[in-house]
Amino acid sequence: MKWRIIGIWIVVFFLGSLTAYAGAPLDTVEANVNKVLKILGDPKLKAPSAKEIKKEKLRVIFDEMFDDIEFSRRTLGRNWNNLTPAQRVEFVNLFKQILEKNYADKILDYTNEKVQFYKENILSDTQAEIQSKIITSSKEIPIFYRVLLKNGQWKVYDVIVENVSLVQNYRTQFTDILAKNTPEKLLEILRDKVSKH
What's the CATH number where 51 sits? Predict the structure, then answer.
């Protein structure tokens, strides 16, 4: 139950449209996460036959609002510099597909859990951390997510669920692979994962 909810909300936070000017990251995140929830709760999209339509609506928000390049760069850490420009482009594309495949079905399982936003920490002129929690019938799950100001827009670059960073989690996996393999081998592994889903 806990991991289903976490999966849902990791993606919800990623999909929230975070357009805003400096000074209002929390208000912006809260308002736009609600837009995502509106899609998830749309009675016209409840039928199983509407699953792909709902996914596409969410995908549009994801593509426009989530900083997939920044997330990918931070996930690879220093290894990002070892990829060629072409490899970076492919990595970003493959990683985005893997995230969608891992979490798309979970987000569609959303069942009206309550979300409360309660604190905004300004980390720098261009970074902020928004603290929130998911309130279920049995417990509260803390969700912190970090946003970056780029070109006048706040965009997600990491999500921390119960003190576990999504960036750090994937970085550990990719660092282990790259410690023994070339960047091309990593891309080959990711291509295989995408093709098998």
Answer: 3.10.450.710
**Separation in Å, CA 79 to CA 90, 93, 137, 176:** 15, 17, 42, 11
For tokens 């490899």, the residue is 87
Q: How many domains does the chain have?
A: 1
Q: Looking up tokens 């070339």, which residue turns up?
A: 182
First to last CA, the chain: 23
Length of the chain measured in residues: 197
The residue segments making up the domain with residue 41 are 2-196
Q: What is the pTM of this model?
A: 0.79
Per-residue pLDDT of the chain (197 residues; tens, 9 = 90+): 555 555 555 555 554 444 444 447 888 777 767 777 788 888 888 888 888 888 888 787 777 667 899 999 999 999 999 999 999 999 999 999 888 877 776 777 766 778 888 899 999 989 999 998 888 778 888 888 889 998 888 888 888 888 899 899 999 999 999 999 999 999 999 999 999 86
Q: Do 115 and 9 contact (CB within 8 A), yes or no?
A: yes
The SS3 call for residue 68 is helix
Place of tokens 């928000």: 61
Q: Of 194, 197, 174, 165, which is closest to residue 10 (Cα–Cα)? A: 165
Two structure tokens written together for 54: 């709902």
